Amino acid sequence: MEKNVHTFIGCDCEYDDSKIVLFGAPYDSTTSFRPGTRFASSAMRNESFGIETYSPYQDKDLLDVNVFDSGDLELPFGNPEGALRDIHDRTAEILDDGKVPCMIGGEHLVTLGAVRAVAEKYPDLHIIHFDAHADLRDDYLGVKESHACVLHRCWDIVGDGKIYQFGIRSGDRDEFKFAKEHTFMEKFGFFRLDSIVKKLQGKPVYFTLDLDVLDPSEFPGTGTPEAGGVTFKELMFAVEEVAKLNIVGFDVNELSPVYDQTGRSTALACKLLREILLYFYK
Fold this sequence. Notes:
It is built from eight helices and ten strands. By secondary structure, the protein is α/β, with parallel strands linked by helices. The strands form two sheets. Strands 4-1-5-10-9-6-7-8 form an eight-stranded parallel β-sheet, sandwiched between helices. α7 packs parallel to α8. The protein is globular and about 45 Å long. The chain starts with 19 loop residues before the first strand and ends with a helix.
């Protein structure tokens, strides 16, 4: 895999030496409200050079770990299945080489492509999902491959008792009914996360983070802002807890930089990704 010349800060080691491989999935064709997440990965790479590689939270530095940024996929807009196939193939390639994939979305649908590949390698896959929205609709306006349906489609793959959702504060009635029967859902925050982490020790886990789990007062740059979210510090503590698990793949989604002209949402996303990379690096 060729080195990307436009990298996230500190993520420019050689592919063969890397343990984590980052790639962008700039796709937002099924966005149900405001588009713009296709610009997230490029914006985060650009703005990442406004932060440091060093984390004072962890006393670790991206310069001391091996992360390779393979760049953005060129995804076919208007063709969700084609985009998911390309994401699957990049994720599978990374996994086949014994590395951990890290994807920057994009709308949340992109997670499905990665989960398909990870579940092929790890049949006992579990998913931890941080989000404002349940994303459990069976279809949205007749479309099953939508960012509003992504966790339902993931459930189609992994089945009952494998999906753990936190921070959820929005969805239709049927989604919450579905969750009661098929997933673990912790509404409004990260309560009981520690007990789930203890339960999942030794299991392969995919972690998917929709940044709109954050309160829009801290993170306005998203297509579907939802009042009542968590703080940056609360999210950081939760990510630190998740890092105790066997994370075999992860993603960060739903930054839409055009809706925050101050740039603070992109800066927050960059800082958070730095911390996640350092937390999950084994």
